[in-house]
Amino acid sequence: MTTTTITEATTATTAQGRIEIQDLVKQYGSDAPAVAGIDLAIESGEFITLLGPSGSGKTTTLNMIAGFVEPTSGAILLNGNDLTRVAPHRRNFGMVFQNYALFPHMTVFDNVAYPLRQRNKTKAEVRTLVLDILERFGLGGMEHRRPAQLSGGQQQRVALARALVFSPSLVLLDEPLGALDRKLRQSLQAELKSLHQDVGLTFVFVTHDQEEAMFLSDTIAVFNNGRIDRVGRPAELYDDPGTLFVANFLGEANVFAGAWADPQTYGWQDEKWRAATDDRPADAVLVVRPERMRVYPASDVPAGWNSVGATVTDVSRLGPVSRIDLVLPDGRVGAAVLPSNEAVRVGVGDRVRAAWEVGAQAFVVGEAA
Ligand code: ADP
Ligand code: MG
């Protein structure tokens, strides 16, 4: 019943959370720009994650959307209207930060009521909305406590309730689960995902954790050094990362920086590998995900597969899958992750062929370090 109330309260805004970012730049002093010109369209109702390493410009971008940081140039549009010069409190966005940022001297009730009172809701409306959302977040009966009397997970639920209670047109979340331990983080990830599905609002989420991004997002924008390297659905980016940076940041990759021998053949060291005929950038680097890599004695490589000589340096049994660490002919490390029943015949020191199907390889651009 309480869920219905939140949904009803927010339906009016569900068609109104489309963001368009145009050539956005933030330059602090004479340093390299924190944000170096990004373009991004965020669809209404979408869960988008800004993913990237520390210092890549995620928080600066989020703060420009929120209005806390003024862009050096570029524009941000909400449903086609230019927001760039609109004051933060006029944007009607909900915000959640890593450190909760609750008012420590206020009760849970007053923390969540705060944005409603700022919007001049009646006492009765405030009471209904706050109690409903606290129930929805598993905080029923805790309205008289202060933040210090709550666990970290409960405090973060209060912060989320406060960000959502006034039916914002956009919810901005900056590493909101970063301070929680792994188990609690995973359970809040699941809650956040189902919450997003219930309320249908646009969520812009920041994290440096690729697994968290893959689990939560409809769309991921990968930040690299103040720019967006790639935007796409999680599976798309994982299978066809486009750049070496994305291939390495979103998971793990075996990397072969070779060159085209002819349009269907990619050469690397003494190897000649088959390539499918489409999508082959000129300066391509071949990448293979560890779970697509298999390990065979030289004579057993399946017909039509590509393969490379390798030496096994470690075998770790992780339960249903095992990880085989490899050293490749150029001295780089590689890895294969296989079902454990296939790994039993592999031992440390074995000379093997690491092999993959042609369809399992992807070509990316970027300098191999
Ligand atoms: P992220 O959130 O991805 O870790 P940030 O957006 O916080 O990255 O920072 C991007 C870059 O901008 C970093 O090099 C950071 O040092 C710089 N930066 C961020 N805020 C400021 C500021 N207020 N003044 C000067 N430099 C800043
Ligand atoms: Mg940050």
Automatic annotation (TrEMBL):
PANTHER family: SPERMIDINE/PUTRESCINE IMPORT ATP-BINDING PROTEIN POTA, SPERMIDINE_PUTRESCINE IMPORT ATP-BINDING PROTEIN POTA. InterPro entries: AAA+_ATPase, ABC_SmlMolc_Importer, ABC_transporter-like_ATP-bd, ABC_transporter-like_CS, Mo/tungstate-bd_C_term_dom, P-loop_NTPase, Transp-assoc_OB_typ2. The keyword Nucleotide-binding applies. Residues 19-250 form the ABC transporter domain. The keyword Cytoplasm does not apply. This is ABC transporter ATP-binding protein. Keywords: ATP-binding, Nucleotide-binding, Transport. Gene3D superfamilies: 2.40.50.100, P-loop containing nucleotide triphosphate hydrolases. Pfam families: ABC_tran, TOBE_2. One of its GO terms (molecular function) is ATP binding.
